[in-house]
Write a structure and sequence with these properties.
Strand order of the largest sheet: 2-3-4-1-5
Number of helices: 12
Oligomer: single chain
Number of domains: 2
CATH architecture of the largest domain: 3-Layer(aba) Sandwich
Bound molecules: adenosine-5'-diphosphate, magnesium ion
Order of helices and strands: HHHHHEHEHHEHEHHEH
CATH topology of the largest domain: Rossmann fold
CATH class of the largest domain: Alpha Beta
Distance between the termini: 71 Å
Radius of gyration: 24 Å
Mean pLDDT: 93
Length: 258
């Protein structure tokens, strides 16, 4: 071990902010000497470890920062339970090109069919693709927008701040109706993000009933207009996955005891 060189490397990795290199270079150098790597092969191995670590750290920071209510992946989603769901569309959404293009996703369907699961799964894909994501329920967003509206800097500052999130997920729109001020704040959010940043919405109510959520058919249709202009609308249906799996478990047990 050459301490002068080690000290110099320690200094350089600090200046470069590449701590992984500082951690791995000596072990990889031993490996390189034993395996007879070229200088280029050694350099590539060292840089590869740094990039891999940085990407993993970035993704886990984004996943933590998104505040998902739990971790659900697209890979865990069983499309056999959703025969009407277009797999090609889902596979395309999973590439996150919709986020790059500031397009929206709307997942519609009754409770328990996997809307939140898909929303989180797509959100995690976006985190992997380096896009900052923010997840909250519609009521959560309503509270945040209302608080911003009453703050000294106002809703404008909040909408500007939210621009840093390339994907906003609004879960469970429709469970609770909004008063007219909240409806108006939601409209401002949708209008501000139009062609600027993606929104993913899950709702138990078909578009025809969004007037009930916003207390006004005109506000609702102006919002739907902007949302669906560049959007993938995925209707989910069928029985609740929870009820269905529970029933299947019970039937399996029946079969076994017979
Ligand atoms: P929704 O938001 O539509 O009410 P959720 O996404 O919360 O439904 O789904 C309810 C539960 O069932 C969750 O634990 C979810 O992971 C699971 N689930 C729903 N659909 C599927 C599916 N097709 N494959 C795997 N798990 C599913
Ligand atoms: Mg849900």
């Amino acid at each position: 071990m050459n301490t002068a060189i080690d000290k110099n490397i320690a200094h350089l990795v600090k200046a470069l902010r590449t701590p992984t290199i500082g951690r791995v270079y000596a072990d990889l150098a031993d490996q390189a000497r034993q395996a007879g790597w070229s200088h280029e092969e050694y350099l590539a191995a060292v840089l590869d470890r740094q990039v891999t670590d940085r990407e993993a750290n970035g993704t886990s920071l984004r996943v933590a920062g998104a505040h998902f209510p739990g971790i659900k992946t697209l890979e865990e989603f069983n499309t056999d339970y959703q025969p009407g769901l277009r797999r090609d569309v889902l596979a395309h959404l999973a590439t996150c090109s919709f986020v790059a293009k500031a397009e929206n996703v709307i997942l519609l369907g009754p409770p328990g069919v996997g809307k939140t699961h898909l929303a989180i799964g797509l959100g995690i894909k976006a985190c992997h693709s380096s896009y900052p994501v923010a997840f909250d329920t519609a009521s959560g967003w309503a509270n945040r927008l209302t608080a911003a509206h009453h703050s000294p800097t106002g809703i404008e500052a909040e909408l500007k701040r939210l621009r840093r999130y390339r994907l906003l997920i609004i879960d469970e729109l429709g469970y609770l109706p909004f008063d007219s001020q909240t409806a108006n704040l939601f409209f401002q959010l949708v209008a501000a993000r139009y062609e600027q940043g993606s929104i993913l919405i899950t709702s138990n109510l078909a578009f025809g009933r969004w007037g009930e959520i916003f207390g006004d058919d005109i506000v609702a249709s102006a919002m739907i207009d902007r949302l669906v202009h560049h959007a993938e609308v995925l209707p989910l249906d069928g029985e609740s996955y929870r009820t269905r799996t529970r029933r299947e478990l019970l039937t399996d047990k029946d079969h076994q005891t017979k």
